[in-house]
């Protein structure tokens, strides 16, 4: 409980059962949401973004790649990635606006990197990779050589993977800053 919330709690709910003053509207809100609704939103969005990104990147996606045929895997990824990358773009903005901590240059930088990486993947790399995949599928249907297109796809997919790793690292860096500041409370 934050220090201010503790004071409100002690004032109205002391152990001696003294006469309690009625809570004003602001104090009622603070007792219902002791951490604050704004801070709760920030922590929730951060947790979902970091946990979801880590889980999808390191667990779900590799398993799907191993277990599904390439065309099935591609269909799954084409449905997930637009939402995933848009989330990486928007979540840092929500986190920054509702942050449970005062943002310093380090945490602002981590959120900015995350948003930039999400936007880069969502609005540039994803469309490029999608068009290369469509080109490869068309060449396969015609029975033509796809080695050059596959190599080009690998290049852009590799860049996208590195950008995704950078975004997960920046989420971890923000989480480290968040944890350090919350530990002081």
TrEMBL record:
Q: Where is the TMEM205-like domain?
A: 45-136
Indicate the transmembrane segments per the record: 41-59, 80-103, 109-126
**Acetylation in keyword set:** no
Compartments it resides in: Membrane
Instruction: Establish whether keyword Transferase is in the entry.
Output: no
Q: Provide GO CC annotations from the record.
A: membrane
What top-level branch of life does the organism fall under? Eukaryota
Q: Identify the InterPro entries for this entry.
A: MFS_trans_sf, TMEM205-like, Xanthocillin_Biosynth-Assoc
Name of the protein described by the UniProt record:
TMEM205-like domain-containing protein
Q: Which organism is it from?
A: Scheffersomyces spartinae
